[in-house]
Amino acid sequence: MLVGKELLEKSKLLSKHSEDEIARGCGYVSPSGRVLRKSFYKALIEAKGYKLSNSGAGGRAGNRSSRGRQAEFKTKVHGNGNLLIGHTYTKKLGLEPGQEYKIDLRKDSKIISLTPLN
């Protein structure tokens, strides 16, 4: 993901394209291929010299309820059978996009573990 001067230069070169194409061209794409618009716009604003606080919506820095949904270490099996772990947990473990893991299952205790392949 480009930032700063490089982001401004690349986005200017792509200015005749759609916003999503500009964001993609600057590297703001998730591993699943989704355009990361919020991250892209935030980086653009900061590249223009504006300092954004990490206080959440409305600038209520000390208010815990303004920080959005908090991570709860639980999940559920979705209707399609998928079990989603989520970014918060992979980040907390230091897992990076593209890393590969072997999934080990212990059926009797219903424990799932990941073993790095690299």
Description:
The protein is α+β, with helices and mostly antiparallel strands. It contains four helices and two strands. It has a domain at 4-47. It has helices spanning 4-13, 19-25, 37-47, 87-93, and strands at residues 101-106, 111-116. It has a two-stranded antiparallel sheet with strand order 1-2.
**Structural class, from helix and strand content?**
alpha+beta
Helix content: 25-40%
Succession of helices and strands: HHHHEE
Strand order of the largest sheet: 1-2
Shape: elongated
The helix tally amounts to 4
Poorly predicted ranges: 57-66
Distance between the termini: 24 Å
Main sheet characteristics: 2 strands, antiparallel
Radius of gyration: 19 Å
* Mean residue pLDDT: 82
- Assembly category: single chain
Beta strands, count: 2
Strand content: 5-15%
Any chance you could write out the topology, listing elements then pairs?
Layout: H1 4-13, H2 19-25, H3 37-47, H4 87-93, E1 101-106, E2 111-116
Helix pairs in contact: 1-3
